[in-house]
Structures are given as structure tokens and as C-alpha cells.
Design a protein that fits this description.
The complex is a heterotrimer of chains A (about 300), B (about 290) and C (about 400). Chain B has about 290 residues and is mainly alpha-helical. Chain B is built from eleven helices and two strands, in the order ααααββααααααα. In chain B, a hairpin with a 2-residue loop joins strand 1 and strand 2. The chains are: A mainly alpha (about 300), B mainly alpha (about 290), C alpha/beta (about 400).
Chain lengths: ~300, ~290, ~400
């Protein structure tokens, strides 16, 4: 069964619940899930641990907003040059890393270095990005619907539908990608890169592809996030952003389509359910992460599939 | 002007030694247990707070406080090794993530115990030596001395003692070492604990120079990892040199270029080195 | 049996009517500050002071408005300095808890993020916070909910102006070197003070450092080349301890001027400094000897938390803290309502409150309060100047 269908019932939630807090948490979950799914493609499927997606997330937000304002075009049109920019940057960084045969750990470190450099540039390029003061985003994405015409996305309900729909599209894309021959090549690279190479797979090209896709998706998530929270700041490009995405994917289940969504839900929602003092909450977060790695290496989704197989 | 540059060069060497001791911990852990323990910054923080507490609160003489702090950091390292890291040997990704979780736990602990208000130790050795235009604070020079001596002793031990040779043998070929009668399990635990103790020492001397906050670990582990990679992870001799190079690059770079980009200079240098010498400046393993 | 039933009924009726007479209604007070996290310096004191006031008021039986008595219920949430977190928390406070009064935020980036959401509730609640960025929105149409509980540096009642005047009067400097953190607060300081010094004929140079920097020697060496009379560092104590120590130990500069940060770094390095002029909302060590209200607050803190009074943090209780709870209650009493936010706001802006601080608001909604200038000389000699704007 195509797991993407499991997302469909979520459309019904706003009809039943008026609880703004729940809907807000879900919106954040959906947007961050897009980031997590992107990371899952390059890490869960292609096996490359990258730390660049946090920077791509932030750059998606900045790029879309700045282009929208400079050129006066709509949100969706502004996304296109932003994606192009992220794509080119990913190709550059990826080319540098993969051409020099950086493996595993060194790859992670170099992507981290580039991510930090991107953050420092954004932080200090005051004339364009307003530096640490950040940017107030008051524009709203607009959507054309056949029976309504052009409508602005504002308010929780509208954002909920937009975020969920975006997630659905990305999840479907991810599923198609993974089930295709491209996805099989990713898996081959993950399992044994040298063997994949001897089998004639151009590992360089496929790694670059996975890396680029992951960053473009991260950029999309970043743009949505920036426009939803109405505020963009340099800390959205930080290492913490990358680490959060990694934690989501691992918690939810590496290498599964919906795992990242589950992980995103847990990490976004749990802090509001556990009514601890803030320090205890941070400790609990760390403890949960440790527990997941040591006890549930295949994440929450992995737990369920094992349970199903047993019964 | 040359005096200013020379002054910053010397400062960079001293600061670099602090990076170097963390780098040594990172390199040892990677070489023997196969993971990068990002939580080493937290063990440094434990050492720092322990030294501060023992000196300022319980009023022990500073050298004793440092020794005790190292022991405390080592014990904490033992605890985390038995509870967590023994399950992630040679699994880089898992080790990374467990150490990130551990960072949250330890940092929260420090927050609960000491709050986020920065702590400043009473001065141990104040004043400075002045040579013309160059001023070298006494405590910084003392710190430099202590760290260099410890690192040198570590090298000497690795080269000359049976335990040291066993460690190097294991790093090169685990199976062979086991066959030769090396208790590999005990060795791994030992190295894990020693790395934490080293970080604790770094923290204890750090406490005499700078203010302490629960979040101090983050900066130093990043620098430590950068320095270790710069030299070549697994290259024990290079760790100190890597740290010094990083420290000097930052200090001199900040002098001429915008200070706000201070962290970037080290990063750019690192990326450049890795591209042309993917095993680090002095070559490491893997 | 008949008469037992009647006695029981009467008793029940008495109990019921007494109970309804003393019916406790509750006024909810929300708080969103960074209690933990890297910027906790600016949220911690507020989260410490407000509970004490709420507890005192409730223990005294609550407060009367009209003929009803009310108690306060405090819902204090930790934003960790994270704007996303703060948005979710504010939503909860306004929509679930239906709080009409929210204390915080002190952090500008948090305020800027919650602003568009909060705007929808203009007229339905009051946001009382100290964030620097609130200054741009206080008193603007559609922003009646913004009440800024902190002095503004510039302008006729600006404490920055007073500080600079004091500096010129005592030291007549020609050059000032400024060293700020490369973030929201630091950049705003640069924007305020560069023109301020220039207007008074003082030459300046400004450098920014990354948050988390511990070793300042390179940038101090750079600034030393400028040969300034005073160093103006700042923003929170954490870097200040290191900056002052390294500046004096490294022989770079020994005279300091601060508008953010405490006396602590100066005292710690008192043998190395030559001059240390700092804006302290209140120098508690002195004030508790002179003012009974201040003494009372210190005692109340120690009794409530059973620990030492945080002298170095306490000055930050000048924003959205102990006094402001009492002031809000007084405003409700003056307005004669706990629900009509517009009336309460008008009342709040109309009077001067005398507590630990003497507080009033200007007609836009920005706080003006008395403060101290502490002048520390080499060796530890202190001179305190009290300023009433």
C-alpha cells in the first residue's frame, strides 16, 4: 500500500477540531516534515550524511522573500529562482565534495563548514538581509483555486491546507523517486559504494542528485516556514536546524516514507505535551534521542513494522 | 604593527593549545572507538564548572581543584561510556547522535545546578608580563605550559609504555592487537575515559581564564573537531599542531578582516586543506 | 425531624450565600520570557519577580475591583528565546487560557515574530514587554496592545542621553570605541549611539563580535589602535566579564562606559580598571539600605525561593516584573474593571507608581523610571548618582 494515502485523512482534522494550538503544531509539523523527507532522501536512501540542509532551509526563506520583493512577483514564481539558486549552490558544494572523494565523516564536516559559511554571510550581509535584525515577512502566498479564484493564504485553516497539500506532493514525489530506478541506485550506493561503482553506476552523479534534491526540498520547507512565521532570521540557517531534521528522521524511522513525518510530529508536539520545566524538557529531549538510537534504531515506524511482522 | 601581529600570533598559539587538547581527545576517541564524541565539549564544561566550584565555593587551592576536576570529568566519562558509548563502537552515525543527545542532558544538568548566569572564577594568577608593546597575561602562559606538558606526556606514554604501544597497535589493526593479547574492551573504555579527562583538564584551566556558561562546550568541540580534521583524524601528534594552526589563523585573521567572520577563517582554511589533502595535513586514518 | 430539616436548610442557605459573597474570580496573567537558553539573561529576572508579586497578592486575599475580589493566576511559559516556541505559547495564552494580560517578551526577535499574530487581538489584551524593537510600534495605530516596560535610550527622557551627558561632564572624552554583540540588541545599540555621540562631537569607531566569543584580544588590539578614551562594550554580562578582564590584563584600555550590563565585571577587575561608568536600573546593594520597599522585595525574594538574592540580575526586574504586577492591579482598580482592556490601558498610562522603582508611562505607552549611574574608580571606590527623568 502506498503509505502516502495515510496522510489523506489529515485533511479532515480542521473540520472536527477548533483547537488552534493543535492545528498550529500540525502546520509546523507538516512544514518541517518536508525538510525531514528531503534529508531522508539523501541520508536514509542514498546513505550520505550531510549537514547542509539547514543552510538550504534558511536560504529558501531568504531567497523567496527577497526575490518576491525585488521583482514584485508571487510566492510560487519567486520559489523558482530560489530553487535554481539552491540547485546551483548544491551542485557546487556537492561537486567539490564528491569530486575530492570525501567520504562519510569528512563529507559531513565539509558540508557543515559550508553551511556555517552560508550562515555567516547571511548574518553579515546587512544591506541585503538586514543581518541579525532579520526580515519581517508580511506578504502572503496566493493560490488560485478553480471555484474561488485567487485567494490569499492567511489564517490557520488556510495555512493548514497549504502545508498539508505541500507535504502530500513532496511525500508522493519521494515515494515515486524511491520506487524508481533512481531510488534503486541510491540504495545500491548506500549499501556498498564501491560495489555500486563496479556495477557501472555513476556514483558521483547519483550522490550529487540526492544531495541537490534534499537541499531543494529543504529550501521549499524554509520558504513555507518563513512565510508562515512571518519572520526570517539568520539562525534559521544554523547547525541546530540541520540537527533537528536529523533527529526527526532518526526518531521517526530512517528509510521510510512517512517516518520523517512521524518524527517531525513527535519532536514538534512533544515539548508541548510534557509539562516540565524547560531544563528538564531539554534533558528529556536528549534522553529520548539517546533511547531511540540505542533501542529503536529503525525509529518509531520501524517499531510498528516489526510488530506487524511478528504478529 | 609587527608587535601587534606578534602579540596576536602568540595569543593564537595559546588559545590554539586549548583547541589542541580537545582535538587530542577527539582524535584518540576516533582512532580507538571509531566514533566522534561530540559530547567532549560537555566534559570540558564539567571540568570547568568542577574547578570553579571547588575553587570559589569550597575554597580548595586551585591546583588541587584542577586535579579533582579532571577526576570528576573522567568519572563522568566512564559513566557515559558504560551506559551509552559501549553500544555504538565503530558506528559513526549512531555515536554522533547519541553524543548529541548526551549534550542536551548534560547541559540541562548544568543549567539546573548553576543557572545560565555566567560564572567567573576569582583570579588565580593575575597580571601580565610586558615585553615592549606585547603583553602576555601570566595565567594564559601558565595554562599554555600545563596543557603542553600534558599533551607531551601523552605522546611519550603512547610511544614508550606498553599500554601506549598496545593502543597504537589496536588503532592500526584491531584484530591483530586482540590476537597479541591486548584487552581490547578495556582499552576502548580506557581511551574513552582518558579523552573525557583530557577535556576536563582543558575545562579546568579554561575556568581560570574565561567566564563559564553551560553552553561553553559547543564552541570548543567544534574547534576541536576542526583542529583534529585539519591535522588528520587519528594522527595523535598532529592534534596539537592542528589546534595551534587554527588558533593562529583565527587571531591573525580577526586582526585584518572583520571580526564578525572570525569563525569563518578557520572553516575556510579547513575546507581548503581537506580538498587537497583529504586525510588532513599530516595524514590520519580512514 | 421537621425542625432539623429547617435548620439544615438554613445552614445550607447561609453557607451558600457566604460562599457566593466571597466568590473568588480569577484574573489570568500570562508570561512569555526566555527562562532558559542562550539569551536567558533577559528573561530570567522577570520570570523570578512576577511569581513573588502574584503570590503576595493572592496570600493577602486577592484584590478588590468594585465589589468583587479577584485572585491572580499566573501562566508562565518558557520561550527558550525561540520565536517559533513563543508563537505557539502566545496562541495558547490568548486562545485557550483567554488571558488579557501577557508579560514579556524582553527579546526583540521574539517580539517581532509574535507581532503579526498579536495584532489580531489588538484591543483584547495587553502585551507588556521590554523588547527594544517594541519601541517602533508603541503608540502606533492598531498597536494599542503594545506596552513597553523599559527605558528608551534616546529622546528627551532617554537614559542614554543622560548617560552620555554624565560621561562628558565627568571625563570630557574625545574618542569612544564601541564593541557590541553581532545580534539584534547589539546592532540597535550601534544605531542609537553612533549618532548620539556624533551629535555631541565625540569621534567613534564600532566593532561587532560573534555571540559566544571568549577571546577578545584580536578585536581589542584593533580597537587599541584607535586610541580611544573610553571603551563602550556591551550588551549582556556574559561577554562583559571577559572583555573587561582581557582589556585590562592585556593593557589595551582601562576606561569603560556601559549602558547594558552590570557593575559585576568592573568590581571583579577593580584593580585593573581606571574608570567604569555603568547604567544600573537600581544599585540594589545601596538601595536596600535606603528604601524600605527595596528591602522588602529582597526579603520577599529570599523567603520565596530560599536562596541568595541575585544582586547582579535584580536590576533587570525593572521590566515586566514585580512592580508591574502591582501596577497592573492598581490600573484595574482605577479603571473599575478587569475586563475592559481599553479602560485599563488608559488608567495604566495615567499615574505614577511607587514601588521598588518609581514608574510611569509616557502617552505612547513606553516606560519611564528612575535609575542609578554607578561610577567605579580604580581600587573599588564607588560613586552613585540617582537620576529621575
Amino acid at each position: 500500500m502506498n503509505p502516502v494515502w495515510l496522510l489523506a485523512p489529515l485533511y479532515l482534522i480542521p473540520a472536527f477540531s477548533q483547537n488552534e494550538v493543535v492545528l498550529t503544531i500540525l502546520i509546523f509539523t507538516f512544514i518541517l516534515s518536508i525538510l525531514a523527507i528531503g534529508f531522508n532522501i539523501v541520508f536514509g536512501y542514498a546513505g550520505q550524511l550531510t549537514m547542509f540542509h539547514g543552510a538550504a532551509f534558511g536560504m529558501g526563506a531568504y531567497g523567496t522573500y527577497l526575490i518576491l520583493n525585488k521583482l514584485g512577483i508571487s510566492f510560487w514564481l519567486a520559489l523558482l529562482p530560489t530553487f535554481a539558486g539552491i540547485l546551483l549552490l548544491s551542485l557546487l558544494v556537492g561537486w567539490i565534495c564528491f569530486k575530492f572523494q570525501l567520504r562519510e565523516f569528512y563529507f559531513a564536516v565539509v558540508t557543515l563548514a559550508f553551511s556555517e559559511l552560508a550562515r555567516l554571510v547571511v548574518l553579515n550581509w546587512n544591506s541585503v538581509t538586514n543581518g541579525t535584525l532579520g526580515l519581517l515577512v508580511l506578504d502572503k502566498p496566493t493560490l488560485w483555486l478553480p471555484w474561488v479564484g485567487v485567494m490569499k493564504i492567511e489564517g490557520t485553516r488556510a495555512w493548514y491546507l497549504l502545508a498539508l497539500s505541500s507535504l502530500l506532493v513532496v511525500a508522493a514525489f519521494s515515494r515515486v523517486l524511491v520506487c524508481s530506478w533512481i531510488g534503486r541506485n541510491f540504495a545500491a550506493i548506500r549499501l556498498n559504494e564501491e560495489l555500486a561503482q563496479t556495477l557501472g553506476i555513476n556514483t558521483f552523479r547519483y550522490k550529487l542528485l540526492a544531495f541537490t534534491i534534499s537541499n531543494v526540498l529543504a529550501g521549499f520547507a524554509g520558504a513555507l516556514f518563513g512565510f508562515y512565521t512571518n519572520y526570517i532570521e539568520p539562525s534559521q540557517l544554523s547547525i541546530t536546524q540541520s540537527l533537528d531534521a536529523i533527529a526527526m528522521v532518526l526518531l521517526g524511522g530512517v528509510g521510510s516514507i512517512l517516518g520523517p513525518v512521524v518524527g517531525a510530529l513527535l519532536l514538534t508536539g512533544l515539548p508541548h505535551v510534557i509539562e516540565f520545566s524547560a531544563e528538564l524538557r531539554a534533558a528529556a529531549y536528549g534522553a529520548i534521542l539517546i533511547l531511540v538510537i540505542l533501542v529503536m534504531p529503525r525509529g518509531v515506524v520501524g517499531l510498528f513494522s516489526r510488530w506487524r511482522h511478528v504478529s | 604593527m609587527t608587535q601587534v601581529i606578534l602579540g596576536q600570533f602568540l595569543n593564537g598559539i595559546i588559545v590554539g593549545t586549548l583547541y589542541g587538547i580537545i582535538a587530542l581527545g577527539v582524535t584518540l576517541t576516533f582512532g580507538i572507538t571509531g566514533i566522534v564524541n561530540f559530547a567532549l565539549g560537555q566534559f570540558m564544561m564539567i571540568g570547568a564548572y568542577a574547578a570553579w566550584h571547588l575553587t570559589d565555593i569550597t575554597h580548595l587551592p586551585y591546583p588541587i581543584a584542577v586535579a579533582l576536576a579532571v577526576v570528576i570529568a573522567g568519572l563522568a566519562g566512564l559513566l557515559s561510556d558504560r551506559a551509552l558509548f559501549q553500544f555504538t563502537r565503530n558506528n559513526l552515525v549512531n555515536g554522533l547522535l547519541v553524543s548529541i543527545g548526551l549534550i542536551s542532558v548534560i547541559e540541562s544538568g548544568a543549567m539546573l545546578l548553576y543557572t545560565a548566569t555566567p560564572k567567573n572564577m576569582d583570579f588565580v594568577l593575575s597580571g601580565a608580563w610586558v615585553f615592549g608593546d606585547i603583553t602576555l597575561p601570566r595565567m594564559k602562559v601558565a595554562t599554555f605550559g600545563v596543557l603542553v606538558v600534558v599533551i607531551a606526556l601523552t605522546w611519550a606514554a603512547l610511544a614508550n609504555t606498553w599500554l601506549g604501544r598496545a593502543t597504537r597497535a589496536y588503532a592500526q589493526n584491531p584484530e591483530a592487537a586482540a590476537l597479541m593479547g591486548v584487552n581490547t574492551q578495556a582499552l576502548q573504555v580506557g581511551v574513552s575515559v582518558y579523552s573525557c579527562a583530557l577535556a576536563g583538564l582543558g575545562g579546568a584551566v579554561y575556568a581560570s581564564l574565561y567566564s563559564l556558561e553551560p553552553s561553553m562546550g559547543a564552541l570548543f568541540i567544534l574547534k576541536g573537531v576542526e583542529a583534529a580534521i585539519l591535522a588528520g583524524v587519528g594522527n595523535l601528534a598532529g592534534a596539537l599542531v592542528g589546534g595551534v594552526i587554527l588558533g593562529v589563523t583565527e587571531s591573525i585573521g580577526s586582526l585584518f578582516l572583520p571580526t564578525a567572520f572570525r569563525d569563518a577563517y578557520g572553516l575556510i582554511f579547513l575546507v581548503a586543506i581537506l580538498l587537497f589533502r583529504p586525510n588532513g595535513l599530516f595524514g590520519g586514518q580512514k | 425531624m421537621h425542625y432539623i430539616a429547617r435548620i439544615a436548610a438554613t445552614a445550607a442557605f447561609c453557607v451558600a450565600s457566604v460562599a457566593s459573597l466571597r466568590a473568588q474570580e480569577v484574573v489570568k496573567l500570562g508570561q512569555i520570557e526566555a527562562q532558559t537558553g542562550p539569551n536567558t539573561i533577559y528573561g530570567w529576572m522577570g520570570s523570578q519577580g512576577v511569581p513573588i508579586a502574584v503570590d503576595e497578592i493572592n496570600k493577602a486575599g486577592g484584590f478588590k475591583v468594585g465589589d468583587k475580589t479577584y485572585k491572580l493566576e499566573l501562566i508562565s511559559l518558557d520561550t527558550r528565546g525561540d520565536p517559533k516556541e513563543a508563537t505557539i505559547e502566545l496562541k495558547r495564552l490568548l486562545e485557550q487560557d483567554k488571558a488579557r494580560f501577557v508579560f514579556g517578551p524582553f527579546l526583540s526577535n521574539v517580539f517581532v515574530t509574535v507581532l503579526p499574530y498579536a495584532k489580531q487581538f489588538d484591543g483584547k489584551f495587553l502585551l507588556l514587554g521590554g523588547a527594544t524593537r517594541m519601541h517602533d510600534f508603541v503608540g502606533q495605530p492598531g498597536h494599542d496592545f503594545v506596552i513597553r516596560t523599559w527605558n528608551w535610550d534616546a529622546g528627551p527622557s532617554g537614559f542614554g542621553e543622560r548617560m552620555v551627558d554624565y560621561l562628558i561632564k565627568t571625563a570630557s572624552p574625545k574618542k569612544v570605541a564601541m564593541l557590541f554583540q553581532n545580534d539584534q540588541g547589539g546592532k540597535v545599540l550601534g544605531e542609537i549611539y553612533e549618532p548620539l555621540f556624533k551629535a555631541k562631537g565625540i569621534e567613534t569607531v564600532t566593532e561587532y563580535f560573534e555571540p559566544g566569543t571568549k577571546d577578545f584580544t584580536p578585536v581589542l588590539a584593533k580597537l587599541a589602535a584607535f586610541k580611544a578614551d573610553y571603551l563602550f562594550p556591551g550588551y549582556s554580562d556574559a561577554p562583559l566579564y571577559d572583555i573587561v578582564r582581557q582589556a585590562t590584563e592585556g593593557n589595551f584600555i582601562r576606561k569603560f562606559f556601559l549602558v547594558r550590563g552590570s557593575l559585576g565585571p568592573g568590581m571583579k577587575n577593580k584593580d585593573g580598571i581606571e574608570d567604569y561608568i555603568v547604567y544600573v536600573p537600581k544599585y540594589f546593594e545601596d538601595a536596600e539600605k535606603i528604601s524600605p520597599k527595596v528591602k522588602g522585595f529582597v526579603e520577599a525574594y529570599k523567603a520565596f525561593y530560599k536562596r541568595e538574592f541575585p544582586y547582579d540580575q535584580a536590576p533587570l526586574c525593572s521590566s515586566s516584573c514585580y512592580d508591574h504586577v502591582y501596577m497592573l492591579v492598581a490600573a484595574m482598580q482605577r479603571a473599575g474593571t478587569v475586563q475592559d482592556v481599553g479602560k485599563i490601558r488608559t488608567a495604566l498610562l495615567s499615574f505614577t507608581y511607587s514601588g521598588v522603582w518609581t514608574i510611569k508611562f509616557d502617552q505612547r505607552g513606553e516606560q519611564i523610571f528612575n535609575f542609578d549611574i554607578v561610577h567605579l574608580k580604580k581600587g573599588g571606590e564607588l560613586q552613585i548618582t540617582r537620576v529621575e527623568p
